[in-house]
Structure prediction request, 842 residues.
Amino acid sequence: MSMASMKKLLGVVLFALLCNFFIKQCEGGNVSYDHRTLVINGQRRILISGSIHYPRSTPEMWPDLIQKSKDGGLDVIETYVFWDNHEPVQGQYYFEERFDLVRFVKTVQQAGLFVHLRIGPYACAEWNYGGFPIWLHFIPGIELRTDNNPFKKEMQRFTTKIVDMMKEEQLFASQGGPIILCQIENEYELVEDYYGEPGHSYVKWAASMAVGLNTGVPWVMCRQGDAPDPIINTCNGFYCDGFVPNSIYKPALWTENYVGWFQSFGGRVPYRPVEDLAFSVARFFETGGALQNYYMYHGGTNFGRTAGGPFVATSYDYDAPIDEYGIVREPKWSHLKELHKAIKLCETALVNSDPVHLDLGPQLEAHMYYMESGTCAAFLANINDTSDFNVTFNGNTYSLPAWSVSILPDCNNVIFNTAKIATQSTLVQSKLINKVYETIGTNWKWYNEAIGIWGNNSLTNTGLLEQIFTTEDSSDYLWYTISVEITDNEPLPILHVESLGHALHVFVNKKFAGTGSGYDEYSNITLEKSIILNPGKNTLDLLSITVGLENFGGFYDAIGAGITGPITLKGLKNGTQDLSMQEWTYQIGLEGEQLGLYLRNDIKNTNWNSGPNPPKNQSMIWYKTEFEAPDGNNPVALDLVSMGKGHAWVNGHSIGRYWPAFLSPENGCNTTCDYRGSYDQYKCVKNCGQPSQKLYHVPRSWIQPTGNVLVLLEEIGGDPTKITFLTRSVESLCARVSESFPSPIDSWEMIMKDGLSSNKPELSLHCPEGQLISSIKFASFGTPQGQCGNFEHGECNAIDTRSIIEEICIGRRSCSVPVSVKRLGDPCPGMDKTLAVQAICN
Ligand code: GAL
Prediction:
C-alpha cells in the first residue's frame, strides 16, 4: 500500500471516530462527507458536475441546456450567484427573467439533477467587477474582500438573503431540494497575501459566517488551502490529480476544470482538445477524486454589460460541450458522455475503497479499487506525452496511447480510453451550418450621437477624474471636454493622452480624430496623434470607454479606468502645453442612452433620420431597422463583421458589446493542436488575424415573428447594410466505426454476462430533435479516409454500402447499423474494415 493509501485509510478510521464523537455534525443533513466522497441521502456518490451560469442564457433555454447536460451524463449543475444584478441598487432586489435564480434551481431540480450554488458573493467569472455591485465602493470606510466591518456586513446580508430565499423554497437537499453544496468566497488564496493579516482573519470569518447560516449542506471554498473545518477546500485548474484536501476527512472535489478558456476582444480563440480534457477527468477519478465540475458545460453569452474584463468578449462560449447557442459540440459532448458512463460503471468500487497505486513503469501507472466482495475497477495511465506503451496489468497486456487513461470497470476489460475518440460506436461528429438571411432592414433610421457635452447635468473639475467612480458604472461612456486656445501660426501639435483604459475616441472640433485601446489584460492606453487646431478656440472632446470592469486580482476593485493623464499638446511654439490640471467638463453617458434609443419604442419621440441609405463609416451614430424572424426554431446569430465597435439591441434586449474591428493577432495560431502534454489556455488557439468576435447570439425568445427592432450604437464606423442574420444548426452527422471496435458502453452489462464474444460493433446516428436523416452524403465500408465533411473512399470499399445505409436510415431521426461483413459484404477479406458515414439532417 502506498503512503497516500495509508493516509487515506487513516482518514477513514479517524473520520469514523470523529463521527461517533460529534455525531450531530456528521449526520446533520441529507448531505455529508467523508474522506472519500460526498454522502447524499446515505449514498456515497461519484459526481459529475458542469457549470451553467443562469444569466448567460435565457429561462427559455434552461430546460434544454439542463436536459442536454443530463443526457451528457451530468449529476450536478454548478452556478455562481451574481450579486450586482440581483441588487443593482442597495436594498433593491431583482430576481426576474435571466436573473430568476429560484426558477433556475427548480428547473435543474425538475430534471432530477443536483445544484452546487456558489454564492460567493464574489464570483470572478469574467463578470463585470467580479459580480460585486459598484455601490459597495461608495460605502464609507469599506474595503472589499477583507476583514472590514462595512464590507462584512454587506456580504453577510446578501449571502443570508440568498440562503433564506433557497430555504423558503425548500431548495436545500436538507429540505428535500436539489442544492447539495454551497460555496463561499472564490479562490481567495490567490490574493490572500495582498490583504495581509486581515485577509487571513477574513477567511475565518467568511467560513464561520457561512456555516452559521445552517443550510444543512456542506460549504466549499475553492482554492483555499487554509479553509477552516468543516469547509471543504477544493481544487481548480486544468488538472487536479495531485490534489489533496487540507484534512484527512475531506473528499477531493474539483470545482473548476476548464474545458477551454474565455475569449477577449482582440484575442485569439482558445480551445481544448477533448482527449486531454477526458484525460484530466479520468486521472482525477483514478487518483481518488469524488466530484469533478466542468467550467463551463455551457458558457453562453455575456449579454448587456455583464462581461468582466477588461475586454472579455460578449461570447462566453468557452469551447464548452454545449456551445454558446445551445448546440452540443462534437466530438466533445459525446466523448465525455462515454467517459462518464465508464466512470459510473466503476462507481461501486470507487466509493467503497481507496485507490491502490501500482507502478507499471516510468510514467506508467495503475490505480485499482478493490472490494472484499471481489468488485474491482482499475485505471491504467500513460502520462508520457509522446510514446505509446504496452503495459501488463492483472495478467493481461494492454496498449496505452501516450497521455491517456484506460478504464477497466472489472479490472479486466478496457471499456474506454481517453485518447480514442472514435472507438465508441455511438460517437458522432456534427457539422454546423449557418443559414444566412440577407434581407435585414432595407429601411433604416439613424441618429447622430452628440459629440461632447449634451445635457444640462454635466460637471466640471479642475484636473482629470477617474472614470468608474465618476460614472458609478451607469454607462460605458464618459466625455472629457476642454476648450483649447491657439494663437496664429502654431505648428501642428501632437496630442498625447494617457489613460487607464479601456478605449478612447478623440474628437477635435467635433470631428473624429483618432482612437486607441488597451489590449487583453493591459488596459492602459498611450495615444499620440498629430491634430489640426485652428487659430482661436478649439474643442477637444475625449470619449473614454470601459469594456467590462476588472474581475480578478488583489484590490482589483480599486484599479479604476479612464483618462488619468497626463494630457498634453506637444510641439507648440512654446513647447508642451499640459492640459491635465486645467478645468475639464464631464458628461456621463451618451445622449442616445438617455433618450432610450435602444428601446423598441423611443421614450421621447426622437427625430431619427430615415431612408434606404444610412451613412457608412461614420463614428458615433445610432442605427435602427426592422427585421422578420429567421425561419424555423434554430438559434439565431447576428453577423456584425461589417461593423466597428459598439453595442447592439434587439427589441430592447441588449445582446452585448460588439467589436469586430479589433482583430486578433496575426500570429500564434496552430492549425492542429497536439492533445498530448500539459495543457494551458495558450496552448491551442485559433482565429488569428480575424475579427475577435464575428457572431452575436440573439436568443430566439427575444425575437417575435415580425416587426423586430434592431438598434446599434456604432462608435467608430461600419456598414450596417451588410449585417446579416444567421441560424445555426447541425447539418451533418458523421460516424466512423471499425469492425474491431468494442461495443458501445451501453451493452457493457451484456458483455459482462456473455463475455466479449457478444461484442458487436455498430454505428449509430442521431439527429437533433425536430430533424430527420434526409440523405446520406457519404458511406463506405472498407478503408475510408479523411475527416467528417471530407471523407473519401479508400482502396477497399463495399459498393452497396450507401444503399444499405440509405435503406436503414433515411426518414428516421436515429438509426443503427451493425458493422459486420454479414450485413455490409466483404470487399477485402482479412483486413480490418471501417464503416464511415456522413448523413444530412433536415
Ligand atoms: C477562475 C475563477 C473563475 C473564472 C476562471 C477563468 O480563476 O474562479 O470564476 O474566472 O478563473 O475563466
Notes: Residues 434-449+593-629+635-722 form a domain with the Jelly Rolls fold (CATH 2.60.120). Residues 1-29, 423-427 have pLDDT under 50 and may be disordered. The chain has four domains: 34-327, 434-449+593-629+635-722, 459-589, 731-841. The pocket of beta-D-galactopyranose is lined by residues 124-126, 186-187, 236, 256, 262 (CB under 6 Å).
